[in-house]
Specification:
The complex is a heterodimer of chains A (about 80) and B (about 450).
Chain A (H helix, E strand, L loop, with lengths): L2 H15 L14 H5 L3 H15 L14 H14 L1
Chain B lengths: L1 H8 L5 E3 L11 E4 L2 E4 L17 H9 L8 E3 L2 E6 L3 E5 L3 H11 L4 H13 L11 H8 L3 H15 L8 H14 L2 E3 L3 H14 L3 E3 L4 E7 L2 E7 L4 E3 L3 E3 L3 H5 L5 H7 L4 H4 L4 E10 L10 E7 L17 E5 L12 E10 L1 H9 L5 H21 L6 E7 L1 H8 L23 E3 L8 H16 L5
Parallel strand pairs in B: 1-8, 5-14, 12-18
Antiparallel strand pairs in B: 2-3, 4-7, 5-6, 9-10, 10-11, 13-16, 13-17, 14-15, 15-16
Helix pairs in contact in B: 1-8, 1-15, 2-15, 6-7, 12-13
The chains are: A mainly alpha (about 80), B alpha+beta (about 450).
């Protein structure tokens, strides 16, 4: 998958979780949770949805890798290719 | 339901085994004379406007993937804490009403109350800690004993499983849910809400069997391997969540050894002691012009001290809850007014009467206490006994019969299992006995237990 495709997947999943999520001015290198006002339960849903759609398992220890949009892409790129 | 939806949402295989013919547990419904009556619902707490994303209600809806716009709410008008001839405090979904009422009626307590609220706002009730007496905490701020009693009255009636006092964590949860957030009704009836949950659950592929009570929990060493149901069917599972209650779950272990592994305590010792008698009335609207129209719930106490414990007599008429299920904003008008009256009741007395060889004893006892209740309540809201179109009452025995809660304990066991874990590594407790209270609370319990214990393992 390309960088853009992965980005869109993540944004689409977030939209699905919170249909009022506003992506205008979203900074890809800053924390998603702060910018979008997501809490830990919402965050778990992102992880679970990725698992459901792509059968990738993300251990809790790796959650910090999903902090920003950019870091999500870097983390998921090799894993989505392998899936 | 919430736990199962949470699990099914992510494509996992889940089966609900419901003992009764209807879902809902302590919050279900029944029909009489073609009308639907709700068994538990008076008001749902934790009201929050849609914009408040972090409020428990909205978090819950997101977790279940139920869009807030599909969940229409009718807010309460206002509710009242009434100690007749002594004081009255109203509260609504606007916390400033309670603050203003308190400042007027208890002017010396206004400042200490604000200090206490500030401390409560900073308190995280979900951090595991040793128990702290809520009464002591509140009394350390508020010197006025009457005010302390009045603040505890609705919180205890709303969901306290322990007699006389409560853990500070529970107090914080209830204080926020009732005073700071507030009451609402979902549009329609509890049946509509339950049907919504059921349809939603099935849309994720979830399975459910009704009238399929679990009769045995099957184990292998320290793990649950499955269950046996009333029909004799054995169903294997990787994980099991029980929302039946702690003592009720203990009863499902077939051997004394496995039951003791689950819990050393005797079932009757861990059962809740608090149960109620409740009467539902439909009143002829045209005759009831004097009934309060802007009061949703009245929590009252006539005794010197508000006592929240199992009464010595069959019913404690010295206090109670008066609820008008129609008095919510936006509710459709009907030709009758519904009234619900609740009093603390002594399970043992009612059980003895029910079990007596003389089968007229129990119904006579019901009639006796309900008639006395009508007089007490009539003095508070005006006489309505001439205008009753329909009435029905249930006792602790009724509660036990339909919900299987031991001793009719409507708020479950006072010993909550905060982390939901048991001595069996794949058996978890969720719902009222895990510690969250009310409809929103117990649903959040289901969600949280699945999040913490099961989703992270798949």
């Amino acid at each position: 998958m390309t960088i853009d495709e992965i980005r869109n997947v993540i944004l689409e999943i977030i939209q699905d979780i919170d249909d009022e999520a506003d992506f205008t001015d979203l900074k890809p290198d800053e924390a998603l949770r702060d910018q979008l006002d997501l809490d830990s339960m919402d965050f778990l849903d992102i992880v679970m949805e990725l698992r459901k759609r792509y059968q990738i398992q993300i251990p809790e220890a790796d959650y910090p890798h999903l902090a920003t949009l950019d870091s999500c892409v870097s983390y998921l790129m090799p894993r989505l290719e392998a899936a | 339901m919430a736990a199962a939806i949470r699990f099914a949402r992510f494509g996992q295989k889940v089966l609900i085994l419901e003992k009764h013919s209807k879902i809902g547990g302590l919050n279900s419904y029944y029909y009489r004379k073609g009308k639907l009556f709700e068994t538990g619902l008076h008001a749902v707490s934790n009201f929050a406007p849609p914009a408040d994303k972090h409020a428990p209600l909205n978090r819950l809806l997101r977790q279940l993937k139920i869009p807030r716009r599909n969940f229409v709410l009718h807010e309460q008008y206002s509710s009242e804490i009434l100690f007749p001839d002594r004081a009255s405090l109203c509260f609504s979904n606007d916390f400033t009403l309670l603050q203003e009422q308190l400042a007027t009626r208890f002017p010396d307590s206004a400042k200490p109350f604000a200090e206490m609220v500030s401390k409560l706002d900073q308190y995280d009730p979900f951090i595991p800690r040793p128990k702290i007496s809520a009464r002591q905490f509140v009394s350390s701020f508020l010197q006025d004993k009457l005010l302390v009693e009045m603040l505890f009255c609705p919180l205890m009636f709303y969901g306290a499983s322990q007699e006389d006092d409560m853990d500070l964590s529970q107090f914080v949860i209830l204080f926020r849910a009732i005073f700071q957030e507030g009451f609402f009704r979902p549009e329609g009836t509890i049946k509509d809400l339950l049907d919504l949950l059921l349809d939603h659950y099935r849309s994720f592929g979830g399975e459910i069997e009704l009238t399929a009570g679990v009769t045995e929990i099957l184990t292998e060493n320290s793990k649950v391997s499955g269950v046996r149901t009333a029909s004799g069917e054995v169903i294997l599972c990787e994980s099991l969540i029980s929302t039946a209650g702690v003592p009720e779950t203990k009863k499902l272990f077939p051997s004394p050894d496995t039951a003791a592994t689950f819990s050393q305590s005797d079932v009757n010792q861990i059962s809740g002691r608090l149960s109620f008698i409740e009467s539902i009335y439909l009143l002829d609207k045209s005759a009831c012009g004097n009934l309060p129209k802007d009061r949703t719930i009245i929590f009252f106490n006539l005794s010197e001290k508000f006592s929240y414990h199992r009464p010595a007599e069959a019913v404690d008429l010295g206090s109670g809850v008066i609820c008008f299920p129609g008095n919510f904003q936006g509710n459709k008008e009907d030709d009758t007014i519904q009234l619900r009256v609740t009093h603390l009741a002594n399970y043992d007395k009612w059980r003895h009467a029910f079990n007596d060889d003389d089968k007229t004893l129990y119904p006579a006892m019901k009639t006796h206490w309900v008639e006395k209740s009508k007089k007490v309540i009539g003095k508070i809201i005006g006489n309505y006994s001439e205008n009753i179109v329909y009435e029905d009452s249930f006792t602790p025995v009724t509660v036990e019969r339909y919900t299987s809660r031991t001793q009719g304990a409507v708020y479950g066991s006072p010993e909550k299992i905060k982390d939901g874990k048991t001595n069996f590594e794949n058996l978890y407790i969720a719902g009222t006995d895990q510690g969250y209270l009310g409809i929103v609370g117990s649903m959040l319990s289901g969600v949280t237990m699945v999040n913490q214990h099961i989703l992270n393992k798949i």
